Automatic annotation (TrEMBL):
Belongs to the UDP-galactopyranose/dTDP-fucopyranose mutase family. Its cofactor is FAD. One of its GO terms (molecular function) is flavin adenine dinucleotide binding. One of its GO terms (cellular component) is cytosol. It comes from Gemmobacter fulvus. The keyword Isomerase applies. Pfam families: GLF (PF03275), NAD_binding_8 (PF13450). It is an enzyme of class 5 (isomerase). Its EC number is 5.4.99.9. Keywords: FAD, Flavoprotein, Isomerase. This is UDP-galactopyranose mutase. It comes from the Bacteria. Residues 150-349 form the UDP-galactopyranose mutase C-terminal domain. The keyword Signal does not apply.
Length: 384
């Protein structure tokens, strides 16, 4: 096999995982990132003053059912047990999320058992809505007006910057309620936190003699021809200089504040009321329950429309964005030697485990294409 020189644009999980696989197969890999650190949006940093491991771009909890992905991350970093248990402050009280039997009993002042709670909630649900079109319809149909107002409406307005009547029903696919006391936010079999943070894990993935990392380096389309192949994990519209317009994103502002002691007693406290401007507060030291720190680092999280200078976080993916995305996908498919990967390259929200799964598959596809003398496609997953 002829060794190729590949460029990975982005030193997040996508670039690191693909780069590692190709380096292990004997290819030469250059990984660049515009930022001063590796890790992409999963980047973690130990705070110099308090010693707390801070999730710089917002809280990241690892959870998956994918055994290969779980084995993969455990090869590069020790994962310690962590279960995400989220609370929410709403209408002057604190409740457990996701909405579960405790939340229902507390909210309505009841002592219902699971079967009784089902019947009770059905009596609250708006059964006149037979064909829910919007998020609001769907929520009212599932849980009725009280729980909708307390736990879904305000948070959704703040998160997406629009009314729930303007969002599609498909956002709430299933009944968002548990009829037991399970308050583990995720259902996945494997859950944990990297002992030394995600950046240490990604540094270990990148630690291979075939990989060179260049930070604070921005790559654009005109540099692609210098490489045999490019894997691009930046924004797909950015690759084309935003020629057709910008794909819509929500961005986040994190307002940091420090505290001596334990500020809120949990890692994540949501705020459901619309008159509280932030969506949640995260207290980072609770993401590392095996550590002990006197000082505490907290983030108030605000969501707003993403401007040209902001970090794109959540793709909006409504009809207008998908139409524009289709045009960029057509352009991408006409590129000679570029594969678009990851959350920004494919304009999708991807959890870390899905990102790693797709990166492993993408790396294998490249190796298979090389072996067969075939062209590597622009996408190994359909972004639409
Ligand atoms: C607020 C938030 C919370 C999240 N929480 C969780 C969670 O709890 N659990 C979970 O599993 N997942 C979570 N995720 C998802 C997780 O962040 C992603 O799965 C992961 O970051 C995707 O990795 P990536 O490599 O595709 O993209 P990124 O991490 O975004 O990496 C892309 C990199 O490319 C670089 N780049 C872009 N363009 C260029 C260019 N032209 N030149 C050079 N460099 C460039 C960027 O600087 C960036 O570092 C969360 C995401 C967000 C937004």
């Amino acid at each position: 096999m002829m060794s190729k020189h590949c460029l990975m644009v982005g030193a997040g999980l996508s670039g690191a995982v693909i780069g590692r696989m190709l380096a292990e197969a004997g290819h030469r890999i250059t990984i660049v990132d515009a930022r001063a650190h590796v890790g992409g949006n999963c980047h973690t940093e130990r705070d110099a003053e308090t010693g707390v491991m801070v999730h710089i771009y917002g809280p990241h909890i690892f959870h998956t059912d994918d055994a290969e992905v779980w084995d993969y991350v455990n090869k590069f970093e020790t994962f310690l047990p962590y279960k995400n248990r989220v609370k929410t402050t709403s209408q002057g009280a604190v409740y457990s999320l996701p909405v579960n039997l405790h939340t229902i009993n507390q909210y309505f002042g009841q002592t219902l058992r699971p079967d009784e709670a089902r019947v009770f909630l059905e009596s609250k649900a708006d059964t006149s809505i037979t064909d829910p079109q919007t998020f609001e319809d769907q929520a009212l149909r599932f849980v009725g007006p009280e729980l909708y107002e307390a736990f879904f409406k305000g948070y959704t307005i703040k998160q997406w910057g629009c009314q729930p009547t303007d969002l599609p029903a498909s956002i709430l696919k299933r009944l968002p309620v548990r009829f037991n006391y399970d308050d583990n936010y995720f259902y996945h079999k494997f859950q944990g936190m990297p002992e030394n943070g995600y950046t240490a894990m990604i540094e270990a993935i990148l630690d291979h003699p075939g990989i060179t990392v260049q930070l604070e380096t921005t790559v654009s389309r005109d540099q692609a021809a210098q490489y045999d192949h490019v894997f691009y994990s930046g924004p797909i519209d950015g690759w084309f200089g935003y020629e057709l317009g910008r794909l819509g994103y929500r961005t986040l502002d994190f307002e940091r504040f420090d505290y001596q002691g334990d500020y809120q007693g949990c890692a994540v406290m949501n705020y459901g009321d619309v008159d509280v401007p932030y969506t949640r507060i995260t207290e980072h030291k609770h993401f590392s329950p095996w550590e002990s720190h006197e000082g505490s680092v907290l983030y108030r999280e605000f969501s707003r429309a993403c401007g040209p200078e902001d970090i794109p976080y959540y793709p909006i993916r409504m009809v207008a964005e998908k139409t524009l995305l289709q045009e960029y996908v057509d352009r991408a498919e006409a590129e000679a030697n570029v594969t678009f990967v990851g959350r920004l390259g494919t304009y999708r929200y991807l959890d870390m485990d899905v990102t790693i799964r797709e990166a492993l598959d993408c790396g294998r596809r490249f190796l298979a294409a090389q072996a067969a003398g075939e062209k590597m496609p622009a996408f190994t997953v359909n972004p639409l």
